[in-house]
Automatic annotation (TrEMBL), chains A, B:
This is Regulatory protein, tetR family. Residues 1-21 are annotated as: Disordered. GO terms for molecular function: DNA-binding transcription factor activity; transcription cis-regulatory region binding. The keyword Membrane does not apply. InterPro entries: Homeodomain-like_sf (IPR009057), HTH-type_TetR-like_transc_reg (IPR050109), HTH_TetR (IPR001647), Repressor_TetR_C (IPR004111), Tet_transcr_reg_TetR-rel_C_sf (IPR036271). Keywords: DNA-binding, Transcription, Transcription regulation. Residues 20-80 form the HTH tetR-type domain. Residues 1-12 have a biased composition (Basic and acidic residues). Residues 43-62 bind DNA. Gene3D superfamilies: Homeodomain-like, Tetracycline Repressor, domain 2. The lineage of its organism: Bacteria, Bacillati, Actinomycetota, Actinomycetes, Pseudonocardiales. One of its GO terms (biological process) is negative regulation of DNA-templated transcription.
Length: 231, 231
DNA sequence: TATCGATCGATACACTGTATCGCTATAAGA
DNA sequence: TCTTATAGCGATACAGTGTATCGATCGATA
């Protein structure tokens, strides 16, 4: 199970025959397929077909499917712009948080892949470096704690957001919050009276948009950090 | 793609022939396999074999594989003890957070499944209800924000923790923090000098244990909540 | 021009989830 | 007790997956 992705594998010398391919082209095709139809659409056969090649051709550029997925993830990390070096830790982390969220909404499959394996690609490492560097505390352990907590929140929140989005999309296109509650099962459940708080949520809560909720939660985390490490 | 799990499907009347089965037995076997060998070990063939049955037999108790996975997730939710009703929101949420973390460490596949589909099983709903109920703010929207943020952090943090754990386990059994840094690739990367903060982390940071880091991050979130909603 | 060498992809294998459907063993009816 | 109906089980089959093997085919070099 030692499926270590080789991040700095040299490109094969040149491509002679039909259409010259490259690892970038393979990864690009895979990303395009995943963006359009989800991760299920990313199979060696489909990616190869999208490039007008046979499935086995891909093995010249990618050693395994896990490596292809790793490369896709790293590509997304590359899309996230780093915070300005002059920014304070709070704006810096907010910038990163929103960058990750935006990237994850552009590529919904990102959250499915993130966290399956550690991100050690060049773009992921650059992302991590600039994120850490935006928090200029003297104690490096504190820096790790803060960045770790913020990123944990970000990934958790974005994952939840996209899950909700998918559920809404699949169960009838109605975008109204908690419209699942009108499903017969949910109504039955709420009718038992054993979920009073849940019922309050369904009936009383206003459906604010996702970005607002994300920002509120992020505010909690950053406020908590400030409360302990502010000058 | 309307793979709606039917949570309250009635059990089939009775099992006559070889070994009487039940949905609980099927889910239990699946969980046992997943605990032992990861989610890859959960296939209809393998689960059925573990029960001494043919693969098709499972379809009497479970409509699809996604439903089986949903049931497994709900079973884990059932293991998480609710917070005491007399607890304040802070202790209540801390209790839930640690409960989720503990359950996820008992069943490492949990984080892989959580967030793929919304959790609407009875145990998940009970878990959500008791979690919401522990935060007795007058504004239900605030309750949602707080619980949402805390759970986002918890799931993100636990996911990261288990990913790290898997990486350590697969890359040589050395448990030392950042021992990946001694891998040739990581050394090469750090030698470029383009990741100074990362290098500081690798060389200077002390390797505290995961529970401590989890608690610290959770503290940030809860402190942030307290800063805005404290009486 | 002839040989070599690399690369492409057809074929194959083990595995997945699941649709179909004949068999069988049990339960009900006479 | 003997027959019939019924329902559940699982063998078989199918489309899909990742990938190992390896023969054919093409380009470049001698």
């Amino acid at each position: 199970m030692s499926n270590e992705t080789v991040w700095d594998r040299p490109e094969p010398p040149a491509k002679p025959s039909p259409t010259p391919l490259s690892r970038e082209l393979v990864v690009g095709a895979a990303i395009r397929l995943a963006d359009a139809g989800g991760l299920d659409e990313v199979s060696f056969r489909k990616v190869a077909a999208a490039l007008g090649a046979g499935p086995m051709r891909l093995y010249g550029y990618v050693e395994t499917k896990d490596e292809l997925l790793d490369l896709m993830v790293d590509e997304v990390y590359g899309e996230i712009t780093p915070p300005s070096p002059s920014a304070g830790w709070r704006e810096g982390l907010r910038h990163v948080a929103h960058g990750v969220r935006a990237a994850a909404k552009r590529h919904e499959w990102f959250v499915d892949l993130v966290g399956n394996r550690p991100h050690q690609g060049p773009n992921a490492l650059t992302h991590l470096e600039t994120t850490l560097a935006t928090v200029r505390f003297e104690d490096i352990d504190q820096v790790l704690d803060v960045v770790g907590a913020v990123m944990a929140y970000v990934f958790g929140a974005v994952r939840g957001e996209i899950t909700e989005l998918r559920a809404e999309r699949s169960s009838g296109m109605t975008e109204e919050q908690w419209q699942r509650a009108s499903g017969p099962y949910m109504q039955r459940v709420l009718a038992t009276g054993r979920f009073p708080t849940l019922a309050r949520v369904v009936h009383e809560s206003s459906d604010r948009d996702a970005a607002e909720r994300f920002e509120t939660g992020l505010g909690y985390v950053l406020d908590g950090v400030a409360a302990r490490h502010s000058p």
